[in-house]
Amino acid sequence: MSVAPPRPDAALKAAGRAVFATDLELPGMLWGALVLAPVAHGRIRSVDLAGARALEGVVAVGHADLARLTGGLSGDAERPAFPRDAVTYRHQPVAAVAAPTLERARAAARAVTVAVDELEALASLESIFPDWPGSEAGRSPHVAAHVRARKGDVEAAFREAELVVRETYRTASVHQVALEPHACVADVRDDRWTVHTSTQSPFGVREDTASILGVPESSIVVDGTWVGGGFGGKGASLLEPYALLLSREARRPVRLALTYREEFLLGRTTLPSVVRLETAVRSGQISARRVRLLLDVGTSLPGRDFATGYSIGFLLGPYRTPAFEVEGYAVRTNKPPFGPHRAPFAPQCAFAVESHLEEVAHRLGVDPLAFKSDHLWREGDSTPFGQRVLPFGLGEALGRARETAARWTREAPPGHGVGVGVGFWSTGTGAGGEARLRLSPTDLTIVQGEREIGSGSVIVGLAAVAERRSGLPRERIRVAYEDTAHAPFDSGVFGSRTVGALGRAVDEALVTLLGRLAERVGGAGPPTLAVENDEIVVRVGSTERPIAELLTDAEREAGGLEAEGKHYGRGGTIDESLVLDGTFYAYTDFTGAAHVAEVAVDPETGTVRLVRYAAFHDVGTVVDAASARAQVEGGVAMGIGTALTEEAIWSDDARLENAGLVDYRIPTLGEVPPLEVTFVSGHAGAGPFGAKGLGEPPIIPVPAAIASAVRAAGGGHVTELPLTPERVARAVKPH
Amino acid sequence: MSDGSLRLSVNGREVVLDGVPSDERLLDTLRWRLGLRGTKEGCRTGGCGACTVLVDRQSTLSCLALAHELAGRSVTTIEGIDVDPLGRTVRSAFERTGALQCGYCTPGFVMALTGLLAERERASSFDELLEDLGGNLCRCTGYAAIVRAAALARQERP
Fold first, then answer.
1. CA of A300, closest CA in chain B: separation in Å?
2. Do the interacting molecules here have an ipTM over 0.85?
3. Could you say which of 3.30.365.10, 3.30.160.160, 3.60.21.10, 3.40.50.80 is the CATH number of the domain covering A345-428+580-732?
4. Between chain A and chain B, how many beta carbons pairs sit less than 8 Å apart?
5. What is the average pLDDT value for chain A, to the nearest integer?
6. For the structural domain made of A11-120+182-257, what CATH number should be given?
7. Which residues in chain A are contacts of B146 at CB distance < 8 A?
8. Which of A14, A22, A372, A516 could be stapled to A183 by a disulfide with Cβ–Cβ 3.0 to 4.6 Å?
9. Domain range spanning residue B18?
10. Taking chain A, what is the end-to-end CA distance rounded to the nearest angstrom?
């Protein structure tokens, strides 16, 4: 059988030798535990640490200790490490303890007395706005952020429409479920606050931690470990401030890790939504859309604007819309803060808009895919918000998906159904990053500040960019990691931005480096690197010189010739005159995918089984084929969970009822069907060599594709995620 | 709390441990007493398979097994996998097919697949083998690459 060349981390990881944050043990290390709030909402009367401190070897910190530990500086007023007055979600950390053993740390946490006057908890969107969308959310005190925009004469379009379709969709809370729980080890010595941690963004953790604790960023060193899965859940600080405070107090290293149950309870992830979609059609074309969104953001502070303002564009979808009105409410509840989860909230948006437009097409009596294809943006079109569409291969991807869907539909036995889902995304190439290269006579080293989170975007993607630019074979290119005290700045491994943005910084550094070599060699033509007799040489036209001969003494001393590159991207702009309230966001590039699913549905039980799956992606330029394919395989599987089984269930008093992997079910090996992956090329993005990001897009169309297939199989029109057997069975036989 | 000393064979080496509480999980004994941290801690409830080890060549969830219950038995962790030619083949198959991304579930998959191949006849079907791997979760790969690794390991098994 054919075997792709292994990733550079494959040997280490397959042998279990990769050291994750959960595996770290420093000499003299104490074990930490958090004291978690016993209610979802309440007024704190007191947090008494005396019982914990009475145990041998235990240190404990709470709100009253903050000023003493951080030197009296003031932390972030909106995001205090520990609440002083009010608990706003169940299991919110109210104190932290550390002890020589984990057992004693847990005993100490139990010995802390927390006195809280319980208040009524805001548990769900339905309890706060029971009649919505029949009523307005208006200026409720529970609305944390509000966005609104409109274009054209929406009322007239709806008045004059030949068809109006109004539907309500509901989506569930889903968890990232990275298999590695959050963990870190803090080690504070004098004024150097070091934390070894599993993070998608060392510099982001430095910034967050500095802000929360009120410690200067220059005093904090964040050292990333291998990351056992991120998916957005490890993009911001979580445990680091507590571990640092404990280490400061104990004057010893302190390990703090979540149990998997706590991972669910404290995780920042996607919360439920209710989406109202209304579409007006005239002459067979969409004439206007109304979109209203109620999004549960928990106690979210940082995410409140973005969650609504960015998501709402995805509810319009990548379709030409002459007139629209959109309005989004970020609703505060007593749940943990909303946080990013692989393509935050986009799979849910795609599920709603794709299912809705399919319903519109059915009522018009036209082929849904032809209807969507007719309305899909093409390069040079204007988005509803007035941004010009950059090179965009989604039309081609949808065309290929339609061919596959037509063939599979012909082949499908009774009880099977074939569906197509479209997903649009803009990858985060706007967020900045920097890289430093060092070329020695034998190796090219990329020095940068991100740890590999699994996707391969750092250790494979950055090397692939350098290989493509220089011609140097991959085995001579090393991606080196440094902590925040030594690495050039980078925003983080999120938003599908690593190859697109940090890769641009690597590429720019390499162009600079090659230019310097060309000057030293002389000659005409673009310089490239190659290996001759085990040594790196530079070629310019017909001239070839070993690197060893081109280095100055100082460069030789420093280990090679260095060059730096930066990429701080700019997004496009939207027509701000359309914005009536809040913030809406422009896209940095235009990417997406069309997916085809074949399912078998049991109409009695409502059980859905995936039979086969095909994914067509616009990724601009594929920089590494094996990693690109692997991203799609993983993203589709995660999307299958969002589509069929994953739902964090919150009780009426805001308690998470299925905080564990037995009750919260992610796809297992047998539940992921055979998958065909195809990349459409020639629609260049903002990344190096026209690459677009690929970490997030593969999850986006999955729930939409599966819902479409379920409907085609006779499973009915389900308007709620996930498509549980109960919901599917109910849609088959509506009462 | 402790039940006297505990004798185990771990990766072919006899170990004697004192002061191990009677309720200590094998996972914690391996990771924090013996420093064998290639065995990963995931859910601790038997739901993810990240902590899978072999006990007398049988795939076992170390988060559910009590260390004292395994007194006198032979435990193999990922650190000792290469001693077993079958284990080496499986590990190498994961490596060569790049059947991993973050790598956190990988040691558990290598151990589980080794255990399953060890207990089965050559003739048993590949689909059944995959079905029995269903207790191990992976969130990154979508399992496609793991299926390729399993096929390679099964084909090459000594």
1. 26
2. yes
3. 3.30.365.10
4. 175
5. 95
6. 3.90.1170.50
7. 669
8. A22
9. 6-80
10. 53
